[in-house]
UniProtKB/TrEMBL annotation:
Source organism superkingdom: Bacteria
Pfam family, one: LptE
Organism: Geomonas paludis
Keyword Secreted: no
The protein's name: LPS assembly lipoprotein LptE
Keywords: Lipoprotein
InterPro entries given in the database record: LPS_assembly_LptE
GO cellular component, one term: outer membrane
Phylogenetic placement of the source organism: Bacteria, Pseudomonadati, Thermodesulfobacteriota, Desulfuromonadia, Geobacterales
One annotated GO biological process: Gram-negative-bacterium-type cell outer membrane assembly
């Protein structure tokens, strides 16, 4: 009798586990905000008003990656998207922040400021507009190639964080 009861109990537990597991599936993160019911967003290359060439391309790639991840792949070309995300790289600076005992620069702080705007392409109205600034410290290296690689990595991290913050700010309003 105990073996039968144990077998019945295991069957019920298996059935319950199957029911709970069946409810788990992938769904896009987007649940509220302007992009929740939208057909997609077109991420336009930001204009670059800074003195650092190429920052806008890194930022655009990170924006596309973030919005693809958050919307479940709804980054679309301009003719198929309901919204357009555009903006301007306002400034990029790299300033020394720490020194060695011999008064030699040890680390730089990269600072990137952007202004982003989300437009509804049908009504041509501005849905959201805001400024975002992020920074990242990176080490100095005597080898100029490694120094440039460190700065590029810092710009990539900053761009990723700016993309995340813009996504968060889009959802805050709604």
């Amino acid at each position: 009798m105990t073996a039968t009861r144990l077998f019945t109990m295991l069957r019920w537990l298996t059935l319950l586990a199957a029911l709970f597991a069946g409810g788990c599936s992938y769904s896009p993160v987007i649940q509220h905000g302007p992009l929740a019911g939208a057909n997609g967003v077109n991420v336009v290359l930001f204009a670059n008003k800074s003195y650092r060439a190429g920052v806008e391309a890194v930022l655009a790639q990170e924006m596309i990656n973030e919005f693809n991840f958050r919307t479940g792949g709804k980054v679309l070309p301009g003719d198929r998207a309901d919204y357009e995300l555009s903006g301007v790289v306002l400034s990029y600076n790299s300033v020394p922040v720490s020194y060695t005992a011999a008064d030699v620069i040890r680390e730089y702080n990269a600072i990137l400021s952007v202004q982003a705007t989300l437009h509804d392409q049908k009504s041509h109205r501005v849905v959201w507009k805001g400024d975002v600034t992020e920074q990242q410290v990176y080490p100095v290296n005597a080898n100029i190639a490694l120094q440039q690689d460190a700065e590029e990595a810092a710009i990539e991290k900053i761009s990723r964080r700016i993309s995340e913050r813009i996504w968060q700010k889009l959802g805050e309003r709604f």
